[in-house]
Write a structure and sequence with these properties.
The chain is of the alpha/beta class. The chain has 13 helices and 24 strands.
């Protein structure tokens, strides 16, 4: 992969080099006035390191829990273990202060507090430990005011929620008021479904896209995220976020960290100092010994090749790929939303993220869910939301006293109608009315047993599948219909 370059973007960055990726704040045109202040994000991952972007200038790490070693603690003098890099990068992508980049590569939730839960035993992760981690977060949610949970790992295989201890724990976390955001996975291709907890009906599963590291681009490309219909019949993912060209920290106390520093120093040197620095730092920079005496143009080319190969974008950062990093970007947006409106429930957050996302016009709907997350619109909608929406996002339509009740939420809607197999796809037969809680509702006579497809028609112009019902099928027009099973 060729690393795009820029000589201007980071002129004011600490220890810059000529390689650059677009900061998340700029890439998403996010609102810089919200930084997750007052919100705690929990991260359930393989391991962590107390990175300067999390502890400087203010230590925002509220708690560290190692499920495999009760005596373990985060130690800045330790580290460099392979299993620490993933959780370090996901947490910094979401909530890093950008301390080592003069704020350039800060996360959208740079003032959020963090609860870090390690679920691996030297890199080995079991479903039992993932479930234990979820349970610990549930039990300690009030103590640490945990409102958001990011999970960028998963269990073994796609099974119904009732058969997965991970999915059941994730659903319980949501019932207890925690927004659970999960990476979809990176297997790509139809049939590669998300695994627990990404297949859990009520979590926000995040797939990926990329923009080729360019702001001015007419088309976004989909990442090779897991997608499709899960064992429970839900369609995943719900939304997609950047999964390539994401700036993340290089783990301190590692060979790559030392190499990146050495390469950056050489890259910044003027030509007359290049040979001298190459002799001094060539070994750490892993430059071929035979070339450190070469002409300065050759040395510079070698340095740039090493920077490119290792995806180094600044002295202490590299760019990373995967839905593991798309998920924490969404988690950071959720923290912004809750800062803007602390009364939001998980159902409200889910509804807002879905309603403000924008689909890529020419891309398969099944692969992108409701589309590209829109950070600025989501925060604006969260700020304006006036309803608790405790029932939104918690399940499909339900039969109550012989009638089938449908719920829908959109404060900007002027009219909402229901159309499906049960009413001849005639929206005029089933208009919804908005109640004092802010929900649009309609009750129809419960149809006979069977499976029915349906959609909502909003403002007589926009057809939309039911955001609170994960069961969907292709509608043969490039979109999806929601599916209702009446028993």
């Amino acid at each position: 992969m060729e690393l795009l370059t820029s000589r201007t973007l980071h002129e004011h960055q600490h220890a810059p080099n000529r390689f650059a990726v677009i900061p998340t704040l700029t890439r998403l045109d996010a609102d810089p006035n919200y930084t997750g202040k007052g919100v705690t994000i929990a991260f359930l991952d393989s391991g962590f390191y107390p990175h300067p972007d999390l502890v400087d200038p203010v230590n925002r790490l509220l708690v560290y829990k190692d499920l495999c070693d009760v005596n373990a603690s985060l130690d800045v003098n330790a580290g460099g273990e392979s299993w620490q890099w993933h959780g370090t990068q996901t947490s910094v992508v979401a909530a890093g202060s950008g301390r080592l980049s003069d704020g350039i590569y800060r996360g959208l939730a740079s003032n959020a507090r963090l609860a870090l839960v390690k679920v691996s035993d030297k890199g080995q992760i079991t479903e039992e430990n993932i479930a234990r981690g979820l349970q610990w977060i549930i039990e300690n949610r009030e103590r640490y005011n945990i409102r958001v949970l990011n999970i960028s790992l998963g269990g073994d295989e796609d099974v119904p929620c009732s058969q997965s201890i991970i999915d059941q724990a994730a659903e319980e976390a949501i019932n207890q008021g925690i927004v659970v955001v999960v990476a979809a996975g990176n297997s790509g291709g139809e049939g590669k479904h998300s695994i627990p907890p990404a297949n859990s009906p009520s979590v926000i599963t995040v797939g990926g896209y990329h923009d080729n590291n360019q702001l001015e681009q007419s088309r976004l490309d989909l990442y090779q995220s897991n997608f499709g219909i899960t064992a429970d019949g839900s369609v995943k993912p719900e939304i997609i976020a950047p999964a390539m060209w994401v700036a993340a920290p290089i783990l301190p106390n590692t060979t790559l960290y030392d190499q990146a520093e050495a390469l950056s120093r050489i890259a910044m040197a003027p030509d007359y100092q290049l040979t001298k620095l190459a002799r001094e730092l060539g070994s750490v920079a892993q430059l071929p010994a035979a070339h450190v005496e070469a002409h300065h143009s050759m040395i510079r080319a070698l340095v740039e090749a090493e920077l490119n190969q290792n995806k180094i974008v600044a002295t202490h950062y590299q760019h990373v790929d995967g839905t593991s990093f798309a998920a924490p970007i969404v988690s950071s947006i959720v923290a912004q939303m809750i800062e803007a409106n602390p009364g939001l429930t998980p159902g409200a957050v889910r509804s807002i993220l879905i309603s403000t996302a924008v689909r890529i016009a020419d891309a398969p709907t099944m692969r992108q869910g409701y589309g590209v997350v829109d950070a600025r619109r989501a925060v604006a909608a969260a700020k304006a939301e006036q309803h608790a929406l405790k029932t939104v996002g918690c399940g499909p339509p339900r039969v109550v006293d012989g009638v089938l009740v449908f719920l829908f939420h959109d404060d900007n809607a002027e009219t909402v109608s229901l159309a499906g197999d049960f009413n001849g796809w005639d929206p005029s037969r089933s208009p919804l009315t908005r109640d004092i809680s802010g929900l649009w509702q309609v009750a129809i006579e419960a149809p006979r047993r069977g499976r029915y497809q349906y959609k909502f028609l909003v403002n007589d112009e926009r057809w939309l599948e039911d955001p609170s019902n994960g069961m969907k099928v292709p509608d043969n027009y490039g979109g999806l219909n929601s599916v209702l099973a009446v028993e």
